[in-house]
Amino acid sequence: MLRREGRATSRACTLTAALLALTLGACGLPKDPNDTHERVQEERLLRAGLVRHEPWTYLQHEGKPAGPEVDAVEKLAARLGARVVWTVAPESELMHGLEKHALDLVVGGISSKTPWAKRIGLGKPFLTTRLVPGAPPGGSVPESLQGQDIAVAPGGVAGALLSKEGARVREATDLHRAPGLRAAWDWQLEAWGYVPGTKALREEQWVWVVPPGENRWLLTVDRFVLEHAEDIRRGLVDHARTRAAHVSEEIQP
């Protein structure tokens, strides 16, 4: 009798421990208070916001969203059995939409340093890019930029950063055609066949953002975009290469 009670007690303890483990495990699972993940799959609709930030995201002549991030979002929707409905608007307007759960996702070259970080669901950085001086094929960037003549795109931050290094800055509308050293993002330099220097002027990390508190949805989005990060980077390189070739064709007599 004592043996049976001992076995029963042992089984009860084992069952209790298992239930406790399941309960604790369930508590550790990410949740969506507004059921974003479930709604996207049930309604087969992903409401995405697009910040126009070429080449990450832009509108084609007929107004159709395009760019490597657009392609990635379309693939995410397809994986979930959904279609994408795009809203194109300024970043501030789209972020307000996320806050109110009127959108499921916003993309468009969004920096991890966005001032909206504490008010939305900030994804993990999926790509880091470097703004860096580059040299023509076969060349190299001097260790010191003091007195070096370096071309930059008009209106960007590269000029100010190079000036602090003592470089002589010249703006070039068609930066990919500028002779000598150029300062650009690493993916642009790769597209042009340029050799990047070792010292970055600036680094940026890029993210996707979702409504606040939707942790299961954020986990799904993060896993997907990290899986497709190289595709997005390759899209940036291809866009820069295509644009350079197109401009070169236009200026030929």
What is the average of the pLDDT values? 89
Q: Any idea of the CATH class of the largest domain?
A: Alpha Beta
Unreliable parts: 1-26, 249-253
Helix content: 40-55%
Query: What is the gyration radius calculated from CA atoms?
Result: 25 Å
Description:
The structure is a single chain. This protein has 253 residues and is an alpha/beta fold. The chain has eight helices and twelve strands. α3 runs antiparallel to α8. The chain is elongated, with a radius of gyration of 25 Å.
Write the layout of secondary structure elements.
Elements: H1 2-28, H2 36-43, E1 45-50, E2 58-59, E3 65-66, H3 68-79, E4 83-88, H4 91-99, E5 105-111, E6 121-122, E7 127-135, E8 149-152, H5 158-164, E9 168-171, E10 181-185, H6 186-192, E11 195-196, E12 202-210, H7 215-227, H8 229-251
Parallel strand pairs: 1-4, 1-5, 8-9, 8-10
Antiparallel strand pairs: 2-3, 5-12, 6-12, 7-10, 7-11, 7-12
Helix pairs in contact: 3-8, 6-8
Provide a brief overview of the structure:
It is built from eight helices and twelve strands. The chain folds into two domains: 36-128 and 204-251, Periplasmic binding protein-like II (D-Maltodextrin-Binding Protein, domain 2, 3-Layer(aba) Sandwich), CATH 3.40.190.10; 129-202, Periplasmic binding protein-like II (D-Maltodextrin-Binding Protein, domain 2). The protein starts with a helix and ends with a helix.
Features:
ten-stranded mixed beta sheet; disordered C terminus; two-stranded antiparallel ribbon; 253 residues; alpha/beta; 2 domains; D-Maltodextrin-Binding Protein, domain 2
